[in-house]
Amino acid sequence: MEMISSVFSAINGVVWGPLMLILLLGVGFYLQAGLKGMPIRKLGTGFKLLWNGRAPGKDGDGEISPFNALMTSLSATIGTGNIAGVATAIALGGPGAIFWMWITALVGMATKYAEAVCAVRYREVDDTGNHVGGPMYYIRNGLGAKWGWLGGAFAFFGCFAAFGIGNTVQSNSVADALETSFDIPHWVSGVVMMVLAGAVILGGIKRISSVAGKLVPFMAIAYFLAGIIILVINADQIGHAFGLIFTYAFNPVAATGGFAGAAVMAAIRFGVARGIFSNEAGLGSAPIAHAAAQTKNPVRQGLVAMLGTFIDTIIICTITALAIITSGLWSSGETGAALTSMSFDQALPGVGNHLVAIALAVFAFTTILGWSFYGEKCFQYLFGTRAIMLYRIVFVIAIPLGAMAKLDLIWLMADTFNALMAIPNLIGLALLSPVVFKLTRDYFDGKEVLAGEDR
Asked: What is the pTM assigned to this prediction?
């Protein structure tokens, strides 16, 4: 086990090193520039399309509404990263890490937009009549059969990442939070999660999207309102918090209290890494859900998809960050979900820590639902439609095992496979960028843009 851990530590140091962060940001900046800032300029258009997309799409084939496609995507992205990930970024990189998290989100909107455009444009219909898509398909169908191996590599890494970051890590986080706050044994949390998640996952994408379409808006709005209450209580510190964020984004933070100090490079590194961990822009996971949207227009779904990064990072992560910084506890030396819990509890004694525990549990549970679909589609790409039910059953069984396990090695492996997913996806997006730019120009010039089999 030590040897395996050493191997993955070495790989992780490379795949999450400076080159990966440069690749993620570089592709994002390139896409944002090629699109002439359209994802930012058309943010309002995206929200309008999201609102109109609540009902099943009438202008195209697909299994789920454009709204539910985004909610399925958000169910997987809004998770422990929004609570524990933000706190870790601040604890290791200082308040300035939040500025770089924002930058990651702004360029990530272009990445997420391009992912969804390609996913709908190059999707296929499988043997069961369902629409399937994502990086493995747009790499193969967009770049040609000679690139099929790269799509296969994405699917392979995605299968393993789903069991790690999308399953066992999440169930363990839920079990930890519920035991700490409510003294519920890990095995009880694991079994309950297995039953609840199994009832949804075994029903496939329509059931997953239906649950996500109801649960995700509720949990996001509830957490946002709880955060606003915290900020109202700490209102006199909000200006100071923003000052710390912008000051330490470009200046080193000296050691203070339990905070060990951080160079500007640390703020950039942890802000970018935790931002990507949270919103998953560039990892290639979200387009798997958007490929199932009921639409004939790739650009329209891309405009909806890019909202996922905005909602996840600019709204939800910012609420967590401001709650932590305005509390003054960011320099306490605490990290992860415990830091967020302490910050909420300072403003709402006896209540705040329970709110964070409940939010963490719900966020992580929905992440399990979303990632079950991502992993299933990767598995299906490699082994065919007959393997789908087997994957669902094994995925559900793994939930209680994760809740009761020691996950140091699994965390490391999951984080590594997550990064390995991004590499083939970013290569595919960079090579397909001319297609994305042309489809976008055609759409806003009033020309017809079609998806999948309608091309």
From this structure: 0.90
